[in-house]
Amino acid sequence: xxxxxxxxxxxxxxxxxxxxxxxxxxxxxxxxxxxxxxxxxxxxxxxxxxxxxxxxxxxxxxxxxxxxxxxxxxxxxxxxxxxxxxxxxxxxxxxxxxxxxxxxxxxxxxxxxxxxxxxxxxxxxxxxxxxxxxxxxxxxxxxxxxxxxxxxxxxxxxxxxxxxxxxxxxxxxxxxxxxxxxxxxxxxxxxxxxx
Length: 195
Description:
Blueprint: E1 9-11, E2 17-19, H1 21-31, E3 35-39, H2 42-50, E4 74-78, H3 83-95, E5 101-105, H4 107-111, E6 134-136, H5 143-159, H6 161-168, H7 177-180
Parallel strand pairs: 3-4, 4-5, 5-6
Antiparallel strand pairs: 1-2
Helix pairs in contact: 1-5, 2-5
């Protein structure tokens, strides 16, 4: 039914299309997501493989990775996030223009992964710091899983499910300063102060 897909529209003569503005904006947002990559560990290798020639993420829409948060509207976080890196993660999220979306890729980003229990500096999931829209499980997840997650995000944008979620999330939520910076300890003392 033309360029606008499933929007409610009337065609009045050649070249004149009436559609709801909200539906048009959803179509534009889901059709051209520009991701900001935040690759921190082995999941970042799979993210790079997703844009390589074998999987070719670009065939699903303008998925050209951006280096600046001011040019991106989707943050793909892949890998282990530490307390020191969480501060920068939140800063990059705050610099992104609205509407902004977050994809959490891999077990380490979702819940700390295998490093959470043996390392004092790893956070237990980035959803403590930024609102996550799509979780992609795996250690590391395959490129097909990331493609499925991006397609799921596009579907959530189309249905408006994300808009309802973002209204309920408190975006001013930040961890206290003592949780952002952990005290420096050597290897032998790391187990003595854990909670």
